[in-house]
Amino acid sequence: MKGNVDGPAASAQFTDLRSITVSPSGTLYVVDQYAIRALSTDGVVTTLAGNVNEYGYDDAVGSAARFNTLGNLAVGKDGTIYVTANDAVRKLTPDGAVSTVLNARLPMWGLSGLTIDGHDNLYVGDWYGIWKLSPRGELSLFAGGKKDGNSMSRDGTGSDAVLVDIRNMTIDKVGVLYITESQVEGPMCSGTHSVVRKIDQNGVVTTIAGKPYDCFNSPGSSDGQGRTANFFYPEGITANIDGNLYVADNSNELIRRVTPDGMVTTIAGKAREQGSSD
């Protein structure tokens, strides 16, 4: 049942859950339509900022703040929450104050991912690049950034790399970024582009799994090493403490594991079979 009821987890209600992240203390934070809500370690749901049913754009405190379309979440060491909202990054401090830390305009191409490192540098993805926002508010291009009309991805360093249709990103314990890219049909032919890519601390981009855009590619779900594996519209991605990646392979309806050396294994779901069975 949809709703926006706070309280004990068993009786709480949500309306339109989107992103989720966890703080160092174990508190879960979720985007619920136009609000940011928390589930504490003792099982209590609280609305921290915004109103589930009211759309808007106001920097304010707690329930007086308003958000438009909310996207990805990230949490800093001090408990500050960051969220993408249309073409902006908003900040929610532990005392409930909401402010805007980045208004993304050209040369950015819309926001499609967000994560934070151990030094509180934010990494913000647009469709074609990864941008780094320092705690002092300095914005710089970290990797990619070129809109290639042929949609041909290319590994490389910094702006020499070509990134295509970034969907999401995560960061591991040593500060290495991983991104998913998905393009079901390219502009030149019907080939697909569904990959997982790695970006190290020096901005070196490497495709570690999946098949980059090619006119002869077709969607698939085969496991395997590196580029022998297939994905079909991979989106969500996270990393565990051992360096393994877990990917929500959207159109395959699968959860896939990618090891640090690029071995892809399906760990849950049946390829292209929708359902809700445990």
UniProtKB/TrEMBL annotation:
Which Gene3D superfamilies does the record cross-reference, listed alphabetically? TolB, C-terminal domain
- Matching InterPro entries: 6-blade_b-propeller_TolB-like, TEN_NHL
* Domain Teneurin NHL as annotated: residue spans: 72-224
Record's PANTHER family?
NHL DOMAIN-CONTAINING PROTEIN (PTHR13833:SF71), PTHR13833
Q: What is this protein called?
A: Teneurin NHL domain-containing protein
